[in-house]
């Protein structure tokens, strides 16, 4: 990772012939054409953005690409998770194909995790695979979803069940785009930043505890360090285990609980993904403590920090959750094997491990206690 005061940070993702850079800096969009050009196989690009992001950044980016001699069509998809449905995906594929693309065309995903996931998946299947570039505009997408090549759409059987591992050619994380992001979305993205510290870097976690509020408030130097460090840690994991056979599972810390909460609340605005992850990480800290690994103070410290940065630390704002409703989601988790429950837990702050064969009754009891604490 290189850094200078006035230049973007460059974070390499080392994957042999499929290696790429993540650029993290303020105002990258203004220079996007020059940054993108060296990565194109032909000047033909298709820019895809959701409606909200297109309105803010779509036309200026397209105009910049055109003025640098590239061809660029802009496709606008609806904002929100429904864009990851089969129907919406088919519409997107046909809209792109109707433009008469060829194998050297590059797709550019401009937006949050929804656009990044769906455009990445489209790139992986169109003409049996064409290039794509990620320009993430949410904090969550900048620190997580745009990096590492997981692409997906949703099925009636669950979220992200249809997808591919398919790496982008370049990721441009322009921190200035976060200025227009609602505070709640910023806090949600910060949940994933904290995760990296908890699973693999205790020093970074302590820094987050001191500067979380600065990061969520988008203080430039803190946001840049948080995004670049998060990308660097994710790049390290992805380089070691691209297809999640081993250490990449750590990235799911708190997510098994989170997915159950999201499934029960409809994967919508009642509970954003990063908010669910925040609550899930607290539950995973309790589990790690009950397994005899970390002290109870780790969970208490996390709870206080989540509250201080505007993230939920319990399910009190989600009435009606029960153990009976939550438990079946764990059996459907991608990490479960032959009915046994596997969870990512902390052996220490900064040291994650996958704990296998946890008795469902153990999890049910933990949930019962935490639901009672939440609902008083
Ligand atoms: P999102 O893409 O829906 O964006 C959230 C909202 O913010 C949308 O309404 C969007 O229009 C708006 N928005 C985006 N950028 C903006 C900006 N700069 N200013 C103003 N508004 C802006 O949600 P998300 O939280 O970015 O991503 C969630 C998705 O990411 C989920 O589908 C999840 O499954 C996926 N995900 C994927 C991975 C992965 O590894 N591929 C990891 C985590 C999450
Ligand atoms: N977001 C989890 C992963 O990329 O593996």
Low-confidence stretches: 1-5
Sheet with most strands: strand arrangement:
1-2-9-6-5-3-4
| Fraction of residues in helix | 40-55%
Order of helices and strands: EEHEHEHEHEHEEEHHHHHHHEEH
Overall SS class: alpha/beta
**Ligand names:** nicotinamide-adenine-dinucleotide, glycine
- What characterizes the major β-sheet? 7 strands, mixed
| Average residue-wise pLDDT | 95
Strand content: 15-25%
**Tally of separate helices:** 13
Number of strands: 11
Question: What does the radius of gyration come to?
Answer: 20 Å
- Termini separation (Å)? 47 Å
Describe this structure as you would to a colleague.
The chain is an alpha/beta fold and 376 residues long. Helix content is 47%, strand content 19%. The chain is built from 13 helices and 11 strands. The protein has helices at residues 32-36, 51-67, 86-98, 113-125, 139-145, 183-200, 202-216, 220-240, 255-264, 273-290, 296-308, 323-331, 360-375; strands at 9-13, 20-25, 44-50, 71-77, 106-111, 131-136, 150-155, 158-165, 170-174, 341-348, 351-358. The strands form 3 sheets. Strands 1-2-9-6-5-3-4 form a 7-stranded mixed β-sheet, with helices on both faces. A two-stranded antiparallel ribbon has the order 7-8. A hairpin with a 2-residue loop joins β10 and β11. α5 runs parallel beside α8, α6 packs antiparallel against α7 (202-216) and α10 (273-290) runs antiparallel to α11. The radius of gyration is 20 Å and the shape is globular. The N and C termini lie far apart (47 Å). The model is unreliable at 1-5 (pLDDT under 50). Glycine is lined by residues 144, 148, 150, 248, 251.
């Amino acid at each position: 990772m290189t850094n200078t005061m006035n230049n973007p940070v460059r974070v390499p993702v080392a994957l042999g012939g499929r290696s790429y850079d993540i650029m993290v800096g303020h105002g990258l969009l203004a220079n996007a054409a020059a940054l993108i050009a060296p990565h194109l196989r032909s000047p033909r690009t298709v820019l895809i953005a959701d409606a909200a992001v297109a309105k803010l950044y779509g036309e200026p980016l397209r105009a910049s690409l055109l003025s640098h001699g590239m061809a660029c069509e802009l496709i606008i998809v609806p904002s929100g998770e429904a864009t990851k449905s089969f129907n919406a995906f088919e519409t997107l594929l046909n809209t792109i194909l109707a433009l008469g693309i060829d194998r050297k065309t590059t797709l550019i995903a401009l937006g949050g995790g929804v656009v990044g996931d769906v455009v990445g998946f489209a790139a992986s299947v169109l003409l049996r695979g064409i290039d794509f570039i990620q320009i993430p505009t949410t904090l969550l997408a900048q620190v997580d979803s745009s990096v590492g090549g997981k692409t997906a759409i949703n099925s009636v059987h669950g979220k992200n069940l249809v997808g591919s591992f398919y790496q982008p050619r370049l990721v441009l994380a322009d921190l200035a785009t976060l200025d227009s992001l609602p505070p709640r979305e910023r806090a949600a993205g910060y949940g994933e930043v904290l995760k990296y510290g908890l699973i693999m870097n205790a020093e970074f976690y302590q820094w987050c505890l001191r500067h979380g509020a600065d990061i969520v408030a988008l203080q430039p130097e803190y946001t840049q360090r948080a995004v670049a460090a998060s990308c660097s840690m994710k790049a390290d994991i992805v380089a070691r285990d691209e297809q999640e056979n081993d250490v990449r599972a750590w990235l799911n810390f708190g997510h098994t609980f989170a997915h159950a909460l999201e499934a029960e609340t409809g994967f919508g605005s009642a509970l954003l993904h990063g908010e669910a992850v925040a609550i899930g990480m607290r539950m995973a800290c309790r589990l790690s403590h009950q397994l005899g690994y970390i002290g109870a103070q780790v969970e208490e410290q996390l709870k206080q920090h989540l509250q201080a940065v505007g993230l939920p630390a319990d399910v009190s704002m989600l009435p009606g959750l029960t153990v009976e409703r939550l438990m079946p989601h764990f059996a459907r988790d991608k990490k479960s094997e032959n009915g046994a429950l596997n969870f990512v837990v902390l052996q220490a702050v900064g040291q994650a491990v996958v704990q296998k064969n946890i008795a469902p009754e153990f999890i049910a009891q933990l949930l019962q206690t935490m639901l009672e604490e939440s609902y008083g």
